[in-house]
Amino acid sequence: MPHYPKPWFREQNRTWYVQLGGRQINLGQDEEAARQKYHRLMAEHRPGEAPAAPEQSPLADDLFGRFLLWAQVNRAQATAETYRERIQSFLDSLVNQQLEVRHLKPYHVQQWIDSHPGWSDTTKAGKMTAVQAALNWAVRQGFIDRSPLVGLQKPSKGRRESYVSVEDWPKLLAKVKTPTLRDAIVFTWETGVRPQELRKIEKRHCRLEEMRIVFVERESKGKRRQRVIHLTPMAAELAARLCKRHPKGPIFRNRDGKPWKPYAMNNAMGRLAAHFGNRPLCFNDFRHGFGTRLLQAGVDPITVAALMGHKDPSTLAKVYSHVHADAQHLRDALSRAASGPPASQIPAIADGATAPARAPKKPARE
Fold first, then answer.
1. pTM of the prediction?
2. Is 252 within a domain?
3. Which pLDDT score, from 0 to 100, does residue 25 have?
4. How far from 96 is each of 66, 238, 326, CA to CA, in Å?
């Protein structure tokens, strides 16, 4: 009796497949459509037919699926999910769903990117990098000899230098009516915590007697060194209150009592921006406001970098270039270095006026 292969579902890319003639055939993500395609294939398939000759190149869909399986085991959950979303979007854009990896060309990626005009240059570069990362992994693993996307040109990532200033802080906070959102915003402003760190804080991370929150290496960004978030008195009081309210799980939660999700935080910022002149606004703006006001207060960059969790202090020069472009800040810094009063307190000389003449030097004694 001939053996008829059955369709099966691959969880990592949420797609149906069937194995025929030594090949995994993509049936699509919709179950009903997948079954119809399966029955058409089986009607054309001859039982006992010799398997197809070994492929010279794996199918793109199969190779990317292997990469996603590897990422699920070897990368953080959020990273693996980001890879899955970006790579599946690329695969969905391919007209030929049975395309071999060797036939992939840069124009396949460019057509995918161009079909989403709403993506920023930073988003485009990130999505293209995910596709390249999968192919580079395949080379290292020995699945292919060379990535077909070598030389793929990506747009330059833009830098967003938006931040909440000291002047805007009280005005913006006055627009926040939801207590749970207010807690998250105030804590970010007080500590410079990253949004992804804020969402993960649990009572077990809080060492309130030491005025700090500690993520061990495996839970911190990069997983190479522990991340210490130092607390101001206000931040410590806020954390203590939330630890008491949520002894298990994340302490920062939305008004429904559920841990914050990235999309929920973005939506909350969108609503807040609508009440604040529709200026672009995200949680990182409060973190950047933290770093900006410390630099403007004269705190040295190495200390600011340590407080913000930057491994390399030079990151401040890249992300906070607006501080170095602030002429008044630079003049005040120069005045402090010269042990004089701040430049903002020195009266300007009116147009046409001349500087006071210097007193004549006393003759030297003979």
1. 0.58
2. yes
3. 76
4. 19, 55, 53
